[in-house]
Design brief:
11 strands; eight-stranded parallel β-barrel; 3 domains; two-stranded antiparallel sheet; 21 helices; globular
């Protein structure tokens, strides 16, 4: 059900949720986790009434906080990893591009079954656009999924690849950096207390020294770090990631990392004494986002430089106190690769396209809807096809853009279809959590991560 007026919303929460001053009280938890949360999240995403949408979003986030699931920073856990107090597992960061409510529920079910601790839900700057999911919506949908499944605990929301666009930066550096800062401000207000800054796109490898090559990268990363420290809510230390070596480009070296870090920390220190820096570093080790599609649409096998991952993770921990190196573009790797990441002390691994593929390639995904999506790609987006791409390669690379255009169509699929696809996602996530040694880490997470209940301004219609 979608609530079309604020009066309809207020009527339907009666006896389940009540407004208490500037907060919410849960009167009937069973009914909240039943049909009400489904209706609230659907209205929070698709209502055309701004008052309904804002009120539904506020109710979901405050109800989540009351139940013990609220947005958190992973900073304290990553500091423990950097000091050596914690080790032996790799944190998965999951990009949910489509049917996010059902996909996140699959992740929570897999986590609860495994006793898994830290799981990050993230969305990249580019994905926000083509999946039609602003940070405030993404946070609310993940929170609703936690409520629905009965999960309680920290919700790690992350801005993935908040990336400087090289072409826009060349045209107007100030405007492009400001665009990233504005996005970060929006994301933090939405509860994204984990932000990955990616200025690796403006590193200039044509320059003679590594310091000169990385100057734009470390300078911008330091500038944005300082901005985040001025913006983060009281009591919250946002976990910040940096990046060296644009994903899909040449592999990162240890020397590039140390030169980046030394100069980054110097510049950050000049912006303010005691400013806390990044907690992790993303590097390039041989992968490409989404994998490399072959002419028939299948994916070429990637060769990851695990030695580089291990060495940079070692130096990151021992010399700078970081949690370690981060591996991007990993979801399409062969199954046998995943247990290598904990062994090399990789701190975080980013997973996106593999889940997209499960959704699109599921035998439960309606053929007629897929045909409509592919027809849209082959007509409206045909101009994006590269000269050397086969039709299969083009579809594989571009079908991610169907999630935004057909978002409501996917959410409106029959529940049995959505649940069947969710079960497939859950199976894959359970496998990954096992291989990443995440099983049984819930107690470790709870030992270090202490949620902070950041106040949310109540929407006027509910305050009345």
């Amino acid at each position: 059900m979608i609530y079309r007026t604020i009066d309809q919303l207020k009527h339907n929460i009666t006896g389940v949720l009540a407004i208490d001053g500037r907060d919410v009280v849960i009167l009937d938890e069973r009914r909240l986790r039943g049909a009400l949360i489904d209706d609230l999240v659907y209205s929070a995403v698709f209502s055309t009434d701004s008052e309904v949408k804002s009120s539904a979003r506020w109710l979901i986030r405050r109800a989540g906080a009351r139940l013990g699931c609220m947005a958190c920073s992973i900073q304290a856990l990553y500091e423990a990893m950097g000091s050596g107090a914690v080790s032996g597992f790799t944190v998965p960061a999951i990009n949910l591009r489509g049917i996010t409510y059902y996909s996140a529920r699959a992740a929570f079910r897999a986590a609860m079954k495994a006793g898994a601790g830290p799981i990050i839900f993230e969305i990249a700057r580019s994905e926000i656009g083509y999946t039609d999911q602003r940070p405030s919506e993404y946070t609310v949908v993940v929170t609703a999924a936690a409520i629905k499944t009965g999960y309680t605990g920290p919700l790690f929301l992350q801005g993935d690849h908040f990336q400087i666009n090289a072409k826009k930066y060349t045209a107007d550096p100030f405007a492009e950096v400001q665009a990233i800062k504005s996005l970060i401000q929006e994301a933090i207000e939405a509860g994204f207390y984990n932000i990955d800054i990616d200025a690796s796109t403006i590193a200039d490898l044509s320059k003679p020294t590594i310091r000169e090559q990385q100057e734009g990268n470390y300078s911008i990363t330091a500038d944005i770090t300082a901005m985040i420290r001025q913006t983060e809510p009281a009591g919250v230390t946002v976990s910040i990631g940096g990046e060296i070596g644009e994903i899909g480009d040449k592999n990162t070296t240890t020397e590039e990392f140390t030169v980046f870090m030394d100069n980054y920390l110097t510049e950050l220190g000049e912006k303010g004494a005691g400013l806390k820096g990044i907690s992790k570093i993303s590097i390039q080790t041989g992968t490409t986002h989404g994998g490399v599609p072959l002419p028939d649409g299948s994916i070429a096998e990637a060769k990851i430089d695990f030695d580089t991952l291990e060495e940079i993770s070692r130096v990151a921990k021992s010399e700078y106190g970081l949690s370690g190196a981060v591996q991007h573009g990993a979801s399409t790797l062969p199954d046998e690769a995943f247990d290598r990441f904990p062994k090399t002390k990789t701190s975080e691994i980013h997973l996106a396209t593999g889940f997209q593929n499960i959704i699109y390639d599921s035998r439960h995904f309606p053929a007629d809807l897929k045909d409509r999506i592919y027809a849209y790609i082959n007509t409206d987006l045909k101009g994006e096809q590269k000269e050397n791409d086969t039709d299969e390669q083009f579809i594989y690379k571009t079908r991610k853009k169907g999630f935004g255009r057909f978002k409501k169509d996917m959410w409106d699929l029959p529940p049995d279809i959505l649940e069947a696809i969710g079960a497939e996602l859950e199976d894959k996530l359970s496998f990954l959590f096992d291989r990443l040694n995440l099983s049984g880490t819930r107690d470790i997470m709870d030992r270090f991560v202490k949620p902070v209940d950041v106040p949310l301004k109540i929407p006027p219609p509910l305050a009345q």
